[in-house]
Records
---
Amino acid sequence: MILLDGKRVAAEIRGELREKVALMKKKPALAVVLVGNDPASEVYVKGKIKACEEVGIISYSYRLPENSTQKEVEKLVASLVKKKAIHGILVQLPLPKGLDADKILKLIPPEKDVDGFSSANFGKIALGEDGVSACTPLGVMELMKRYGIEVKGKRAVVVGRSKIVGRPLAMLLLNRDATVTICHSKTENLKEECLRADILIAAIGKERFITADMVKEGAVVVDVGINRSENGKLYGDVDFENVKEKAAYITPVPGGVGPMTIAMLMKNTVDAAEKNE
């Protein structure tokens, strides 16, 4: 079993980006919008700002209170769109209840959508065109690539169909010539579907849901889930301790896909700045 060490690979990528940014005439700039005081969001935003500092990206943080109105958030995002010096805009999700995230995200033009959540960018990825990909799916693909895992011709099963992970990841796998199945809460015979997978990706947000009897011997297992249990420990969607005995490659939680997501956000921001030079 080989551990897919996202922490190590993400550090490598940040180093490569730092060298690239040092040669750029204009420094890339990322604006991060945080509404409310969700503890998990606070942690994610700190991680993103720290990564920006390491790479050499200028980061701007904009904080709005929990009780902000839809109009107030939209006004802030619209003002950031107009700023030429800002190459990427990120609205940290989830937003407080009562706010329409889709409406807010639609204000960000595709070229500044470094999260890759816009309909335009998703459409380009679905059509196999050059678009900005969502950071987590892109991170999964890059992690497998760096470990020399061949995707072409393999049977990939993605468990989860969210707009920010499952669906775009399935498209990226398809674009790399994998045979892709998307499973979800309504899938019949889920275990049998998973057992067919050469590459099994879990992105459903259910603690240790994928068990060893659902995994084919020698499969590549990628765990996108991050779940905090009652004892405060972090667990993925995969029962790591038992599944690792069967997998050829497996990601840990934490330290697998998470660091790759932030590394890809940095890459998307640098790419956006390059296109703007």
---
Amino acid sequence: MAKQLIKQIDCPQCKEKADFQVWDSINVSLNSALKEKIKNGTFFDWQCPHCGKTTRIMYPFLYIDMLHYFMIWFGNPEQCDPKLYQSMDLEGYQFRNARTFNELLEKAAILENGLDDHAIEIQKLSIVQAIYRQTEGGKTGPLPDLLLFRQMMQEDNMLFSVFYRNAPAQVIRAGMSTYEQIKKDIANTPPLAKGIEDGKDKFQTIDFQWAKGAVNVLSAQKKAAEG
């Protein structure tokens, strides 16, 4: 399944041509060493054999987790070759797209913990909105530039990292009650629930923009029910 490929690239430092070894897919359930390299970013590090300069080169590949039944395509969704996974039994798998390295790590962390990333993204949006209200739109404090799920903690708490442009990063602890309520709201909103069903060859992009649209659908459903 996983295959190493050799490509020739020009070193960004010395401009000499050299071989660059890449993977088209990684089954992290079978290769814990590569999984660790992906998590710490060194998976993308390449050292030029001519000048010795180390450069981080990001490239698309398929992240496969057979223990937790999910796949993440890292890169442009249109570049994903179905041959990378069509030989597998895909029953029960979740399929996601990740366009940035942060998204890749976050999606892997969410799905490894058995959480619903649809609900997580909506919860992240609610956290950002709360920060906006607390700071009066940035008048009394910094506004978040990036918010990421980090990990599950004991006593059913989740940790999120908030990154600001002009202030130190912050860790936010959130309980599971809001998350569980969001999951129920999604399940009870047919137009939204139907649109997020996983299926074979259906890689979803579930991000902040998706959450904004989902909140609009949830709000419309609530208004319709009240009316």
---
Amino acid sequence: MSQKIFIIAGEVSGDVLGAKIMREMPDVEFVGMGGENMAAAGLKPLFPISDIAVMGVAEVVAHAKTLTARIRETADAIIAARPDIVVTIDAPGFARGVIKSLRKSPSGRELIAGGLKFHHVVAPQVWAWRPGRAKKYAATFDKLYAFFDFERPYFTKYGLDTVAVGHPIADGMDKYRRIAARKNDEKIITLVPGSRMSEVKKLMPVFRSAVEMLVSCGYRDYKFVIPTVETTADFVRAQTQDWPIKPELVPSADRYDIYARTYIAIVASGTVSAELAILHIPTIVIYKMNPITMWLARRVIRVKWVSLVNILLNKCVYPELLGPAATGENILECVRQLSLPARRRDIIADLTAADKLWHRDANAAQLIADNLRREISPHA
């Protein structure tokens, strides 16, 4: 009997990691939900990944009907597939909703009683806000794959088996780090508006304003590039049609080559800031949220910064422009600062000091795959 894993990735970064895990386990049948990367690895997604790539309280409420339907659909698909194990990657709210739906269903309870286990990849940042969530995760999942060693105690104290696997974005980046380390005369400013439609809609006007100001203030010779993802590519293309200086749009698959050659990046808060940190690229982090979500976040977040490199090093390496501060004028000033040779040297020195935080002897996908194989081998 072949081994079967039901896998769910809730957003683009999870889709990339999911594809890597699948390729580490070519003898295992995968079914479930993912994006273009997991589809290329052989998965037939149940529905578009954009249906569940939603962040923020107000945004989730606005998409509640779709999310509820997708949760039920996914739970039904798990019951029909009868997998050996369920692996969820990020999108913790969606993952917990699916498991809750299964536990309410007689057929789902039968599967669980028969030994179905739930493994979750990407530890929620309980050290940043609502540490009590760790207890809920311990009651929901059978195993958790965290990226950093310091995250483990938050979950093991509640009995959740937690494995630190290193950050997956560090895997396979050596080629691009070598490119980034070379001195070149390219003048590329990379713009990354995010992967969720809600955030892209808020940030594209900011990017347009920033580009117009940069061009009018001496950065006319620079090339502006936007890596696009499947969930928002058409929208970004339509939005940039009437920009006076049209940016070059490149597919997500080519993003690392662009990042490695970037002079300064201006990006939405998220995984991309860590990718650029690993490549030692000076970066400005911006973000806009629904005002209600922003108001709530300011009252529960326990850390000073939103970008991972700033949090890990406990200092402001990457300037952050959040909420009302995310304006073309402020971006222009940050670009001017990051163009100063001394400031660039300081940033790159800090990013170099962070290198040891990202890596393990084996890559993250391999470590996760090895754990999954040990879990399901008794069912072979």
